[in-house]
């Protein structure tokens, strides 16, 4: 029988820029937060708080700020954890396909 692929892959690169718009000042250097924890949540719709449920996966960026996960087909949203914070737009994973989501995070001061 043929092999049925039921998973998709999401991967990307996380960057941290000290200002909201790095193009304003050419001296601004964006960096990749190593060991940044990012959580992947199921996304139902915009009216459902996705963080009220546990994440379906918790990932950690590598030294270059890259992450990758293979997950069941579905709709998701990725949220970066403290001390950096940011999130992707909702996205749909398709069987056998790779979705690339690069996003920027900000540093939270407490």
The counted number of beta strands is: 9
**Portion in strands:** 35-45%
Pairing-aware structural class of the strands and helices?
A: mainly beta
Proportion of helical residues: under 10%
Q: Keywords for this structure?
A:
110 residues, nine-stranded mixed beta sheet, 45% strand, globular
Structure overview:
This protein has 110 residues and is mainly β. It is built from no helices and 9 strands. The N and C termini lie far apart (56 Å).
Short description:
By secondary structure, the protein is mainly beta.
Question: What does the secondary structure layout of this molecule look like, with pairings?
Answer:
Elements: E1 7-16, E2 37-42, E3 57-60, E4 66-72, E5 74-80, E6 84-87, E7 91-93, E8 98-100, E9 103-107
């Amino acid at each position: 029988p043929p092999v049925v692929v039921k998973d998709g892959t999401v991967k990307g690169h996380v960057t941290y820029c000290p200002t909201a718009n790095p193009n304003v000042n050419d001296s601004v250097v964006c960096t990749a937060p190593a060991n940044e924890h990012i959580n992947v949540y199921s996304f139902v719709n915009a009216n459902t708080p996705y963080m009220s449920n546990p994440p379906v996966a918790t990932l950690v960026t590598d030294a270059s700020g890259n992450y990758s996960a293979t997950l069941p087909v579905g709709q998701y949203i990725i949220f970066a954890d403290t001390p950096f914070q940011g999130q992707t737009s909702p996205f749909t994973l398709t069987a056998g396909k790779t979705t690339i989501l690069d996003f920027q995070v900000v540093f939270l001061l407490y």
